[in-house]
Specification:
This protein is mostly helical. It contains eleven helices and twelve strands. A hairpin with a 4-residue loop joins β9 and β10. α2 packs antiparallel against α3 and α2 packs across α4. Its EC number is 2.3.1.225.
Length: 379
């Protein structure tokens, strides 16, 4: 109304205000509803149905959709902001593909009870493993014996990971002295200065000395034990406590998806082999049902291909006892040894051989201290 140009971040502020004011009724009181949950629930079914109308539309949609997701990733990643868009897209894609498998493929009579049970079991195990992964990556906290006092914030900061709070109020622990790397475990946030020899591992944000291989996530706002990377698809970091379950989630999803895709292609294009049917399936667009199944098979193949690439990288990193964060640092500082055109990066710091690396990876969660009971709120 004042005929003045709008600020560059005015739209972002409007969306943030709406996001903060939007509440849904809940048993324990109204809870904030994140608007980033909604777009995948609407756009994914619409795009897939449009892509099933004609093979040219299918090519356009299935090419544009990944590009839009990648663009949105870079826009949010540049701002270091948290979003539930990717988690919503991942979970809804899994359940929507399973729904279409039950509603469109199973009634055709080409899937027996054993195959249906295998797909259902795979989906259920994937969801259970994902829930286990979301329990937390393992946070860097000072040792409880060094705690002097605790300050409780009844309104937690928006940039703090919810799993870090574990349902409690945001609490900042004030310690008598800085924990040594061997004593740092699962307990709060110190607010003291580091010793001279510990400045390299000192986190000025969390006010804590990080143990070796730990790192601070600027998206979650906390320090993570043995930080691998922040995964937008689970809206959480992958660290020492949940790396095994994260890898298991990838394995279960890839195996279940590949098996489901093969069943769908055998049903809609029985005359062709599975690989040939994915690229050449005559008369598949004559019926909307078969065209939708074929389109969803292609969409699942694209998603599975991306996660298969991530799974291969994870298996290679575990075999060389390195994390994705350490790989990026080694490439940036040019201290790592690259093989197979950069697919394999050996930092040469923690590698102790293939067998020993996997034993250490599979047993690293045992080294975590058990979670401490929630401290009593201070008056």
């Amino acid at each position: 109304m004042k005929k003045e140009p709008q600020k560059a971040d005015s739209l972002t502020q409007v969306v943030a205000t709406i996001n903060d004011r939007l509440r849904v009724p809940w048993i324990s009181g109204a809870r904030r509803f994140d608007l980033s949950l909604i777009p995948p629930l609407i756009l994914l079914p619409v795009f897939l149905h449009i892509a099933s109308w004609h093979f040219l539309l299918g090519i356009i949609v299935l090419t544009t959709l990944p590009l839009l997701v990648i663009l949105y990733y870079y826009l949010t990643h540049r701002k270091k902001g948290r979003t539930l868009f990717f988690l919503s897209l991942a979970v809804f894609s899994l359940f929507y593909m399973f729904y279409l498998f039950i509603a469109e493929v199973v009634p055709r009579g080409d899937v027996n009870h054993i195959q249906l049970g295998a797909v259902t079991t795979g989906v259920a195990l994937t969801v259970i493993s994902l829930i286990n992964t979301k329990r937390g990556p393992g946070y860097v906290r000072p040792h409880p014996t060094e705690t002097h006092s605790t300050v409780t914030y009844h309104n937690p900061q928006s940039d703090i990971d919810a799993a870090y709070l574990n349902g409690a109020r945001h609490q900042v622990v004030i310690a008598n002295r800085v924990s040594s790397p061997d004593q740092t475990g699962e307990s709060g946030t110190a607010s003291v200065e580091p010793r001279e020899g510990q400045k390299r591992n000192w986190c000025s944000v969390c006010k804590v000395v990080r143990p070796s291989r730990a790192g601070h996530c600027r998206i979650c706002g906390v320090c993570i034990l043995r930080l691998d990377h922040h995964c937008v698809w689970i809206n959480s970091c992958v660290g020492q406590a949940n790396h095994i379950s994260f890898l298991l989630t990838l394995v279960l999803f890839v195996l279940t998806s590949l098996y489901g895709i093969s069943l769908v292609l055998r049903s809609v294009c029985p005359q062709q082999s599975v690989m040939m049917a994915l690229f050449y399936c005559p008369d598949v667009y004559n019926q909307h049902s078969t065209a939708l199944c074929f389109t969803c098979a292609w969409y699942s193949s694209i998603v599975t291909g991306g996660l298969l690439h991530l799974l291969v990288l994870q298996l290679i990193n575990v075999s060389y006892n390195t994390t994705q964060r350490e790989v990026r640092l080694a490439l940036r500082e040019k201290t790592g040894r690259t093989l197979l055109w950069g697919l394999i990066v050996d930092t040469g710091v923690y590698c102790r051989g293939f067998r020993s690396n996997w034993v250490e990876f599979l047993t690293m969660s045992n080294a975590l201290e058990p979670p401490n009971p929630k401290p009593t709120d201070l008056v």
